[in-house]
Specification:
CATH architecture of one domain: 3-Layer(aba) Sandwich
Order of helices and strands: EEEEEEHHHHHHHEHE
CATH class of one domain: Alpha Beta
GO cellular component, one term: plasma membrane
GO biological process, one term: BMP signaling pathway
CATH superfamily of one domain: Mog1/PsbP, alpha/beta/alpha sandwich
Organism: Notothenia coriiceps
Strand content: 15-25%
GO molecular function, one term: coreceptor activity
Distance between the termini: 14 Å
Shape: elongated
Radius of gyration: 19 Å
Protein name: Repulsive guidance molecule A-like
Helix content: 25-40%
């Protein structure tokens, strides 16, 4: 995961943050923890919350907060960003904020209803599941996810899907932390729970003077994009 903060007026120098599995640094790539030597350097900083597990990048000069976590062997991240920043993409540079503007590409989305139906059919006919997912049926995956996520929203459904498809218990915590990040980043408690019919990833960006576009990527999206994910802010 690579995040580049561009040189901004007399405020901050260009900075790059780079994280990999088992390497979640508490500083930018040049070893610094703020935006350099300029007047507004402290409006950009890296804050280590839990060593090796949880880092927060605060870019106050553009009203943006980025949360990066390592859960098991996987990286997850969440971004809270003003609509004006999301929409200020330079012409020809829209690929950098593709996920913010358009959500996951259609050819990289999985229909959970069909996946659940196939899992139920395989269970009813006695067909063996993949070795990666051994140990979880749809019902047992739901029960496990309920331990951390009692509301059956998209975070819960993501947890169930990841357990069924991988069998990796770490995905339970990934979905849980994604929801915790929502509660920390989003100012409207009524929008903490996201349901399929109004998923903001499919509708962003939305309109509103004070609206803050909130990008929360589940682990599946991160895994699909991790090899080529570079965000420019």
């Amino acid at each position: 995961l690579t995040i580049i903060f561009k040189n901004f007026q007399e405020c901050v120098d260009q900075k790059m943050y780079h994280a990999e599995t088992d390497e979640l640094p508490a500083a930018f790539a040049d070893g610094s923890k703020n935006g350099g030597d300029r007047h507004g350097a402290n409006t950009l900083r890296v804050v280590e919350k839990v060593p090796g597990q949880h880092v927060e990048i605060q870019a106050r000069y553009i009203g943006t907060t980025i949360v990066v976590r390592q859960v098991g062997r996987y990286l997850t991240f969440a971004v809270r960003m003003p609509e004006e920043v999301v929409n200020s993409v330079e012409e020809g540079d829209d690929q950098d904020l593709y996920l913010c503007l358009h959500g996951c590409p259609a050819n990289q989305r999985i229909d959970f209803r069909n996946f659940k139906a196939r899992s139920a059919e395989a269970q009813s006919t006695g067909r063996p599941r993949s070795t990666a997912a051994q140990g979880f049926t749809y019902q047992s995956a739901k029960a496990k996810c309920k331990e951390r996520l009692p509301v059956e929203d998209l975070y819960f459904q993501s947890c169930v899907f990841d357990l069924l498809s991988s069998g990796d218990i770490n995905f339970t915590m990934a979905a849980y932390y994604a929801f915790e990040d929502v509660k920390m980043l989003h100012s409207n408690s009524k929008r903490y729970h996201i349901y399929e019919k109004n998923s903001f990833l499919n509708n962003a960006p939305q309109r509103g003077k004070d609206f803050l576009s909130l990008l929360l990527l589940n682990v599946l999206a991160v895994l699909l994009w991790i090899e080529c994910c570079t965000a420019h802010l």
